[in-house]
Amino acid sequence: MSAMRSVEEQLAEVLAAVAPLPAETVAIAEAHGRVLHAPVLAANDIPAFDNSAMDGFAVRFADVATASQDAPVTLAVVADLPAGSPDDPRLAAGQAARIMTGSAVPADADAIVPFEDTVGGLADSLGTTTVVAAPAAAGVFVRRGGQDARRGDEVLAAGTWMGPLQCSAAAASGVDVVVVSRAPRVAIVSTGSELVEPGTPLRRGQIPDSNGILLAALATDAGAIVVHRGSIDDEGSSLHALLADLESVDAIVFSGGVSAGAYEVVRTELAAAMAFVRVAMQPGKPQGFGRLPDGTLLFGLPGNPVSSAVSFETFVRPALLAMQGRVGGERARIVLPASAAWRTPPGRRQYLPAAIDRSDPARWTVAPATAGGSGSHMAGGLGRAEAYAIVPADVEAVAVGDLVDVMLVA
Ligand SMILES: Nc1nc2c(c(=O)[nH]1)N[C@H]1C(S)=C(S)[C@@H](COP(=O)(O)OP(=O)(O)OC[C@H]3O[C@@H](n4cnc5c(N)ncnc54)[C@H](O)[C@@H]3O)O[C@H]1N2
Ligand code: MOO
């Protein structure tokens, strides 16, 4: 039997086959979850203009530089500036404008006095206001236009994933559309004559198709559009009928039918397009990967539920991110002490579904998500996992207190 491939070798083969997807323009309100194909350049300054950081009075600093409880300074309030006001009232010496947070600061003012530093509140302040504490310096509580970004500055780089914070930054910079990579179109195909839709009463031998749900959700989280999800039996005719039906997909993710059994439909029917190899990982040893003549990527993931989940993380997710040109999308990794002991398979890197105990914020610990074993069939225990503990191939056991690499996936 041929030697096992390393995870890195298999991933390199997958990534070498990935072609970047073309760009498309979407409205900023539709950009959440997409990856920027082109940088976002600010269409306006942020802040857009000099504006007040406080509710209070726009003043000429020189007028109030010596104000104190013992030497209060009374100013004439000659204008009122609610947020959104386009006014720029002239202020002569001894004059102030009442101003609200976010309102444009008059050109003649160079400091803001919060109303707490005046006698009385805002309500009765439209005639005069008496300042009882001097601003620390000229410019205080004035938020300068362009302080955060200038029109034309790069606010977000190409390759950025548009999370809520990134979408808001683009919106604040005044753009209405962004150029993103087209979302990968993915088909999720479970194989196995034992599979039924979740919730269907099971006769002996049948199980719910949980991988379809799993892989569709993982693909969606990776930015893909799932254009098809379904299961097929182990007949080659079913697989070919499905392939003929699928239109313009970028990747097909099969689960099951890739190992050594007598009914391995993916392996037998797609032998010309895919290579089936053994990878030195547990779970996830049998892997199939290839391309259709039109470039569609074909992933053949092992059918055991934990094997499918780990294989997606290891090979499919990186490919979907690379198609979108995403920069820095790798899962976060941390090192944590183990709070339980477990055994690991010799000669294969282990990816163990794991739970993290966060009860002591200064000392998180990690343990297997499934008590009583790390079997790749533990589809229920997977629900308690929020991470994978990754143990090198040359380690045979993890002891309590050992430091373990942990990949966060939740
Ligand atoms: N003689 C050998 N047998 C097996 C080997 C081997 O090297 N020699 N490898 C084992 C390993 S490791 C794995 S992993 C599995 C991979 O098998 P397949 O990818 O061919 O998957 P199936 O045989 O179709 O199914 C395996 C297992 O997973 C369940 N399954 C399949 N699809 C789904 C689904 N959509 N939802 C939930 N569960 C699913 C299926 O019922 C089986 O229990 O092969 C080992 N065997
Ligand atoms: O590799 Mo299988 O994926 O060990 O369960």
UniProtKB/TrEMBL annotation:
Residue span, MoaB/Mog domain: 187-322
Q: Carries keyword Cytoplasm?
A: no
Record GO cellular component, one term = cytosol
- State its Enzyme Commission number(s): 2.10.1.1
Q: Which GO terms describe its biological process?
A: Mo-molybdopterin cofactor biosynthetic process
InterPro entries per the UniProt record, alphabetical: MoaB/Mog-like_dom_sf, MoaB/Mog_dom, MoeA-like, MoeA_C_domain_IV, MoeA_C_domain_IV_sf, MoeA_linker/N, MoeA_linker/N_sf
User: Catalysed reaction(s)?
Assistant: adenylyl-molybdopterin + molybdate = Mo-molybdopterin + AMP + H(+)
Q: Which cofactor does it need?
A: Mg(2+)
Q: Which SUPFAM superfamilies match?
A: MoeA C-terminal domain-like (SSF63867), MoeA N-terminal region -like (SSF63882), Molybdenum cofactor biosynthesis proteins (SSF53218)
UniProt KW keywords = Magnesium, Metal-binding, Molybdenum, Molybdenum cofactor biosynthesis, Transferase
Q: Does the keyword Transferase apply?
A: yes
Q: Could you tell me which pathway this protein works in?
A: Cofactor biosynthesis; molybdopterin biosynthesis
For molecular function, the Gene Ontology terms on record are: metal ion binding; molybdopterin molybdotransferase activity
Give the UniProt family note. Answer: Belongs to the MoeA family.
What the protein does comes down to:
Catalyzes the insertion of molybdate into adenylated molybdopterin with the concomitant release of AMP.
What protein is this chain from?
A: Molybdopterin molybdenumtransferase
Which species expresses this protein natively? Agrococcus jejuensis
